[in-house]
UniProtKB/TrEMBL annotation:
This is Proline--tRNA ligase. It catalyses: tRNA(Pro) + L-proline + ATP = L-prolyl-tRNA(Pro) + AMP + diphosphate. Residues 48-476 form the Aminoacyl-transfer RNA synthetases class-II family profile domain. It comes from Paenibacillus lacisoli. It is found in: Cytoplasm.
Length: 577
């Protein structure tokens, strides 16, 4: 490819809203252009990389026994109504109508569609198990699209679905995909981790794992314990606090007018205008670990209170699962007032709501809580005596300093980017949609399903997040848009152009993808653009052209070398092995 004809323009500066390295560099290097918030066009350079990622994905999917299909993005809403997700999925589901006012959705995922398809094609256990996959476009109306391709409203995804007659077959399919994902991400040159995860809106009855690319720019946290091998995303992580019951250290209690480490009689405290945990700790000179934090959430059709220690935060995904809904939402001040709740002074004593408490709350002995009365709190509140939760379960968010329950060692927090997710769905969708097969005894049974996704366009960004420097992108072998960036220093020098064209033809015949910079630009401009684009090898044809000498420069390494054409060709061949 001649660079003068390439539909790509490099930028000296990235737009101000481009915060992550991958967003900045993919824009600056001419890989992508934004059409609207969270919606991008892929220019030829990006499309070439995506093709190579897709080839790896296809090879590993075929190796795992999956068959490729292509499913419609436009999906009838009645399928989603049958599965129960049409309303439950939330505002991220893009809804529309056709000219006959029939409701449709733009597919964010394809569980309903593939279940309906396989139900019409497979009627007997003799045709099971079967796994199918596709690579296509998905749509999600993200509330706040950001970070370029890492969080978009339209994106490319590989989604696979397995159908089995038994749980053992599902386990086999799950393990095959789990292994395939490891191979895919290894071939993409990524540093990644597979972690326990929450099933989210996909749901299911079995295990689920996320694959996370390790990157400081990641918006997800991985909680891991190297000693035991445990790893989970923050939303799923279960840890043990380092302080087994309470923080009653001298430092925490210094300056306190009372001995908060001892049980106090049940007492009303006048706390005018003191609403937040921080305000209360300062006003009473009491550690946050002595305070019960009471948060009120809407959970489906019910309103529930969730209790954690004052120095903890609520894990809303855990709480939602315990309350039997996909998601919960904290009520606002107006909603609280309509329920007769004293905002800023809510507590569990006498509260006429469903109450979910973290076990650490029940271990507090005596505590301080809201009094459910404006400007009043209670001290000496004893959990289990003064209030009894409806449910006691781990609902706190893991945090720095927590311990691994298995090894007792401190857990490690690492940032990551979700690049893949595998689920055991069980019969969640087959039962809802009536998708059945006949077993050995002629009985109708629901398919036992699995679901397996990879963010293909997100991979493009995740790779750049891990592989870049101040000058630009550093693509791994096999994924770069071109294997070789061939640069004649001066296109007006006939000997340089003749040598460059000869080398270009030789390399192309050997199967190398070559980008020739035939632009009439200064050498410095060409070199900067080459670093920005990030091809693995740069070959510069300059003053040694007549002697068939080129300058060899590897994008991922320092230093340059002068090699003959033959030496450069042989070295390129050796890199393929």
């Amino acid at each position: 490819m001649r660079q003068s004809q390439l539909l790509s323009t490099t930028l000296r500066e990235a737009p101000a809203e481009a915060e992550t390295a991958s967003h900045r560099l993919l824009l600056r290097a001419g890989y992508i252009r934004q059409l609207a918030a969270g919606i991008y066009s892929y220019l030829p350079l990006a499309r070439r990389v995506l093709h190579k990622i897709e080839r790896i994905v296809r090879e590993e999917m075929e190796h795992a026994g999956a068959q490729e299909v292509l499913l419609p993005s436009l999906q009838p809403a009645d399928l989603w109504e049958k599965s129960g997700r049409y309303e439950r999925y939330g505002p991220e589901l893009m809804r529309l109508q056709d000219r006959h006012r029939r409701p449709f959705v733009l597919g964010p995922t394809h569980e309903e569609v593939i279940t309906a398809l396989v139900d019409g094609e497979v009627s007997s256990y003799r045709r099971l198990p079967v796994t199918v996959y596709q690579i296509g476009t998905k749509f999600r109306d993200e509330r706040r699209p950001r970070s370029g391709l890492l969080r978009g409203r339209e994106f490319m995804m590989k989604d696979a679905y397995s159908f089995a007659a038994g749980w053992t077959e599902l386990d086999d399919a799950y393990q095959a995909m789990f292994s395939a994902y490891h191979r895919i991400f290894e071939r993409c040159g990524l540093r990644f981790a597979a972690v326990e995860a929450d099933a989210g809106s996909i749901g299911g009855e079995g295990g689920t794992h996320e694959f996370m690319a390790l990157a400081e720019s990641g918006e997800d946290w991985i909680v891991s314990a190297p000693a035991s091998g445990y790893a989970a995303n923050l939303e799923k992580a279960y840890t043990r606090r380092a302080d087994s019951v309470l923080d009653t250290s001298t430092e925490a209690l210094e300056g306190s007018p009372r001995d908060w480490s001892a049980d106090l009689p049940f007492t009303r405290l006048d706390t005018p205008g003191i609403k937040s945990i921080d305000e209360l700790t300062a006003f009473l000179k009491v550690p946050a670990s002595r305070i019960v934090k009471t948060l009120i959430y809407k959970a489906g059709q019910q309103v529930a209170a969730v209790l954690v220690r004052g120095d903890d935060e609520v894990n809303e995904l855990k709480a939602a699962a315990l309350l039997g809904v996909d998601e919960i939402e904290m009520i606002d001040a107006a909603q609280a007032e309509s329920l007769g709740l004293a905002v800023g002074f809510i507590g569990p004593v006498g509260l006429k709501l469903t109450v979910l408490a973290d076990p650490s709350v029940m271990d507090m002995g005596s505590a301080i809580t809201g009094a459910n009365e404006m400007d009043m709190h209670l001290s000496g509140v004893v959990p289990g005596r003064d209030f009894e939760p409806d449910l006691i379960a781990d609902v706190r968010l893991a945090k720095e300093g927590d311990l691994d329950p298995q090894s007792g060692e401190p857990v490690v927090f690492t940032r990551g980017i979700e690049i893949g997710h595998v689920f055991k769905l069980g019969t969640k969708y087959s039962e809802a949609l009536g998708a059945m097969y006949l077993d050995q005894n002629g009985q109708q049974k629901p398919f036992i399903m699995g679901c397996y996704g990879i963010g293909v366009s997100r991979l493009l960004s995740a790779i750049v997040e891990q592989r870049h420097d101040e000058q630009g992108i550093i693509w791994p072998e096999g994924l770069a848009p071109y294997d070789v960036h061939l640069i004649p220093v001066s296109v007006k020098d006939e000997s340089q152009m003749a040598a460059a064209e000869e080398l270009e033809q030789i390399l192309q015949k050997l199967g190398f993808d070559v980008l020739m910079d035939d632009r009439d630009e200064r050498a410095g401009v060409k070199f900067k653009d080459a670093d920005l684009i990030g091809c693995p090898v740069r070959l510069v044809v300059g003053k040694g052209a007549a002697e068939r000498i080129v300058e060899w420069k590897e994008r991922a390494a320092e230093g340059k070398e002068e090699l003959t054409f033959e030496e450069a060709i042989q070295r390129l061949k050796s890199r393929r092995r």
